[in-house]
User: Fold GCFC2 factor from Picathartes gymnocephalus.
Amino acid sequence: LTGEGNSSEFISKCRTCRRQGREQSGGGDHHEGLSSDEELTPTEVDEFQKSKDNVLEDSRKIFEDVHADFCDIRKILLKFQEWKEKFPDSYCDAYISFCLPKLLNPLIRAQLISWNPLEQNFTELEEMPWFRAIEEFSDAENVSESK
Assistant:
């Protein structure tokens, strides 16, 4: 197709053909506004769900052999808070505020594997336990600095 206006005609004809194809095949699972190219077959949905379940199962195994004090963000931050209170000079010299993001990154990522903000009943980041623990640690750090 060439010329102006023909591309919109072409798109309209494609949509009509896809709609007719869905009607003939009994595909009543179409959501208006979504491209039929984005719709997954039941087999693809099953494969995706199996793959997702495998990843989630593997993610649960990551910290199986780690002592509880070293795979819980709140406990880790408490250790750092104790260090700061007992040995403030050493704590300051170690530049802990720069190290914590890298240290906590794998733990947070493991907890976010199953998080999907596009689901209807998703948990806000601010409500997650790791977020609150970091927030409390930051507040405690700010209070001690102001003293």
Q: What stands out?
A: The chain has a mean pLDDT of 81.
